[in-house]
Design a protein that fits this description.
heterodimer; A: 99 residues; mainly alpha; Histone, subunit A; 2 strands; B: 479 residues; alpha/beta; Amidase signature (AS) enzymes; 15 helices; globular
């Protein structure tokens, strides 16, 4: 396992769509370093032949439902919380250049 | 009619069936109590007075007719603001009811509002809420535990009769222990998560926080069951949990894991838990020494899996469909970044960064995959232990409630508050916390009982027998 320096925090912040100032980067870098060093305890364990568990219950299998027509939420209900809307759509800033 | 607020749901139901109390009397008394103490406890983030009054005036017939219930602020109620105590969801009014909300309404419950919590359930102290910290009713300078701190504090302070919380690493059991009430995390899959705003989807489970074990059994019976809206809910029948409320532990094999009684465990908590084990033994249970050798790795495993799943779940908060949107962004990416940076608090950002790091290219195998493999080992520990015992008894929290601000600058110290509760989430097991004593400073201590998947009945049997043979659950804070 590795260390997490300020560059790594900046990169992860970009991936997470979070803007951090220099003070936050310094503080998170120190804290994450501490957490990752605590977590590295897991390296003491040999897991070569251990299968991963992504779900605690072995009873669970892929769940399929019938492809049946059912009522869905009303358009007005869905758009009720929209920060910005136009007609029946959520409105966002331009994505394509040449606005 | 006075002091109705101090009664349990089953006591109130008995009163109502004798026509000695009406739902509107109960509701008025509960709101009066909340009005007089919540300025100090700060358990509520929103009281739904009007809708509660109209539902109390015309209650549906059901198992919870006329009983006030407070919901954690991450459980959706149609048309009622639901924010996860986060600025990013301020003003969000869900267009649908969570399945548990629907079931409560169908059972005649009176929903009285929303309880404070750590932001997105990220915390063990209720201090990361955008509304500010909830206080422990036993000592207002101390934390109530978290993340369901508002739910537990409100039950302890008699500001509600019943409450729901959610538990990802101990978020129901630890605040229940620290506030001196009963909190149950059901088996993963027992209760539908539809309409619970997700933190870590392979760990989250909704459960009851109540004044006694009988109420926990009553409330669990109402909210349990398969739901086609949650593909991880399990389609097996819901037992009548009231039948498990027997005062009898004769022949019950209780496992006591040596790894839970180690350095870091407060001396007074250790004494109270050992005394409780003696009580169960005197009542006829047999005590079995067991070993859960990977206990010491549970917190590390959880702090990879939890943040990894959370970073993925919280990607949906981008300012497009609901909640906060940053002002005048330059472009779409700027809108995402601005919204998330303004909307999330510092612990949420910390977990998003940690989770994203553990899932990112080059680190996935070293962290996330490694944690999933250790999760297997932790689960195998329990599988093995349950060959020689029917349930496992441990402390719920290593210490009683700590002071407000004491651990906010030290994430690892905060994370270690959940050292005894995390394993049940990783293994998907049901687990309860019941009051088992008080520290010399008068702070509550909780006893945790874990059982096999879908064996809530054994938990209720052991917890009820213990509770009815002791008086800890009858003590209430002076407010």
């Amino acid at each position: 396992m590795s260390t997490i320096d300020r560059g790594a925090v900046k990169h992860v912040a970009l991936l997470s769509r979070l803007a951090l100032d220099d003070a936050q980067i310094a503080s998170y870098s120190g804290q994450l370093e501490g957490i990752l060093s605590y977590i590295s305890k897991l390296n003491e364990l040999d897991t070569k032949d251990t299968p991963p568990t992504s779900h605690a219950l072995s009873t669970l299998k892929n769940v399929f439902r019938k492809d049946a027509v059912k009522p869905s939420l009303e358009v007005e209900d869905v758009l009720l919380n929209a920060p910005s809307r136009e007609g029946d759509f959520f409105k966002v800033p331009n994505v394509i250049e040449g606005k | 009619m006075e002091r109705l607020h101090s009664l349990t749901a089953h006591e109130l139901r008995a009163l109502m069936s004798k026509k000695s109390a009406r739902p509107s009397d109960i509701l008025k008394d509960v709101f009066d109590r909340a009005d007089s103490v919540d300025g100090r406890v700060k358990a509520f983030v929103r009281a739904a007075k009007d809708s509660a009054r109209s539902s109390a005036a015309n209650v549906k017939e059901g198992r919870l007719s006329g009983i006030p219930v407070l919901l954690k602020d991450n459980i959706c109620v149609r048309g009622e603001e639901t924010t996860c105590a986060s600025k990013i969801l301020k003003g969000f009014k869900p267009p649908y009811d969570a399945t548990v909300t629907k079931k409560l309404k169908e059972a005649g419950a009176v929903l009285i509002g929303k309880a404070n919590m750590d932001e997105f359930a990220f915390g063990s102290s209720c201090e990361t809420s955008c509304y500010g910290a909830t206080r422990n009713p036993w000592d207002l300078d101390r934390i109530p535990g978290g993340s369901s701190g508002g739910s537990a504090a409100a039950v302890a302070a008699d500001e509600t009769i019943l409450a729901l919380g959610s538990d990802t690493g101990g978020s129901i059991r630890q605040p229940a222990a620290l506030c001196g009430v009963v909190g149950l995390k059901p088996t993963y899959g027992r209760v539908s998560r539809y309409g619970l705003i997700a933190f870590a989807s392979s760990l989250d489970q909704i459960g009851p926080i109540t004044k006694d074990v009988e109420d926990a059994a009553l409330l669990l019976g109402v909210i349990s069951g398969y739901d086609e809206m949650d593909s991880t809910s399990v389609d097996i029948p819901v037992p009548d949990y009231s039948r498990s409320l027997v005062r009898d532990v004769k022949g019950l094999r209780i496992g006591v894991p040596k790894e839970y009684f180690v350095k870091g465990l407060d001396r007074e908590v250790e004494l109270a838990v050992k005394e409780s084990i003696n009580v169960l033994k005197a009542l006829g249970a047999s005590i079995v020494d067991i070993s859960l050798p990977h206990t010491d790795y549970a917190v590390s495993t959880y702090y990879i899996i939890g943040p990894a799943e959370a970073s993925s779940n919280l990607a949906r908060f981008d300012g497009v469909q609901y909640g906060l949107r940053s002002e005048s962004p330059e472009d779409l990416i700027d809108m995402y970044t601005g919204t998330r940076s303004e909307g999330f608090g510092s612990e949420a950002k910390r977990r998003i960064l940690l989770g994203t790091y553990c899932l990112s290219a080059g680190y996935y195998d070293a962290y996330y995959l490694k944690a999933l493999k250790v999760r297997t080992k932790i689960k195998e520990d329990f599988d093995k232990a349950f060959k020689s015992c029917d349930c496992v008894v441990t402390p719920t929290s290593p210490t009683p409630a700590f002071r407000i601000g004491e651990r906010t600058s030290d994430p690892i110290a905060m994370y270690l508050s959940d050292i005894y509760t995390i394993p049940a989430n990783l293994a998907g097991l049901p687990a309860i916390s019941v009051p088992c004593g008080f520290s010399s400073a008068g702070l509550p201590i909780g006893l945790q009982i874990m059982a096999k998947p879908f064996d809530e009945e054994t938990i209720f049997r052991a917890a009820y027998t213990f509770e009815q043979s002791t008086a800890h659950h009858k003590r209430r804070p002076k407010l």
